[in-house]
Amino acid sequence: MKIFAFDMDGTLLQSNMSISPATLNVLNTIVNNNHKLLLVTGRHYELVKPIVEKYNLDCGSIVNSGHQYFDDQGIERRRVALDQKTVINTLRVLLAHDFLITIHTDMGKYILEDKEAFFAKQLALISDEHRALFEDEMDSPFLNKEFFFKDLKSTKSIDEFLDTKAQVLKIDARAQDKDKLDETVVALEAISSLLVHVTYDGFIEISSNASNKGLMLKDVVDSMNVEHNNVYVFGDSQNDQEMFEHFENSIAMENAHPNLKAQAKWITKTNDEDGIVHAYHHLLNF
Predict the structure, then answer these.
(1) Dihedrals phi, psi of 17, to nearest 5 degrees
(2) Helix extents (H) in 126-238
(3) Which 3 state secondary structure label does DSSP give 96?
């Protein structure tokens, strides 16, 4: 058995958040040939599940950048959470630098302000380029208020959030002032137990350094008794680097971050040019 592990945004998904028919055909071929399909993403599970259901994918899901694993039945099997002291220190840094903060937990996602106010601030940061990717803006998870509010809870302070006893799996933070980005990253990296990734312009992904996409994937692969040379990993962002470090059969999209492309064994076409299809048939020769 072989395992094919795909990042989602910028890799498996086209820029308009869809899976192309040709790519879907490859995914179904993988499963029909008795191989294993895994999604490995920074998204939380509630943003993965609709994609899985829409395209009827037979797959497991490593979510929150390697800090939670759901099997192909949607049952949580593994979880790596941040400790409370680290959560407090992290949130203080982000609030001091005026970041929009989304806290992903085992009890859903939390923000530290009013929902409507948060959504309005987020909308103001959405680029025209992002909006132009969608025929209907409501297809974007960042622009659809009903979708964004799903499983979202509002707390007014760090202490009020801590009172929920929710386990923090990942924190997403978006700079309202990009001039503060670099100093914020430096402050976060000074917290020894954190893993910090700047995933795209002005956006920081924060989680425990006790796990990452690569470590969780390795754990899942080993539990299935699959040799590492039978694992193929696909990605585009810096939070995919650890997957590429653990597994030699690494495929970067043409649209990938330069650091990831330098790590990759193969480079395929972009996510909007059926790069997965090209890799499967012409680079991996399946």
Answers:
(1) 70, 20
(2) 128-132, 145-149, 158-162, 181-189, 213-223
(3) helix
Please state the rounded mean pLDDT for residues 141-161: 84
pLDDT of residue 202: 83
* Mean pLDDT for the stretch of residues 186-211: 92
13 closest CA partner among 204, 183, 237: 237
The SS3 assignment for 17 reads: coil
- Which three-class secondary structure state does DSSP give residue 159? helix
The separation between CA 17 and the C-alpha centre of its own chain, rounded to angstroms, equals 13
* Torsion of Cα atoms, 48 then 52 then 53 then 56, to 10°: 180
In the chain, the domains with their CATH numbers are 3-80+211-283 (3.40.50.1000), 84-208 (3.30.1240.10)
| Nearest C-alpha neighbor of 97 from the set 181, 156, 170, 172 | 181
Contacts of 174 (CB under 8 A, 6+ apart): 99, 100, 122, 125, 202, 203, 204
- Quote the CA–CA distance of 284 and 286 in Å, as a whole number: 6
CA distance 162 to 165: 6
Cα–Cα distance list, 58 to 74, 182, 246, 272 (Å): 10, 40, 24, 23
Name the DSSP class of 254: T
Please state whether the predicted TM-score (pTM) of the whole model is above 0.70. Answer: yes
Dist. CA 201–CA 35, nearest whole Å: 36
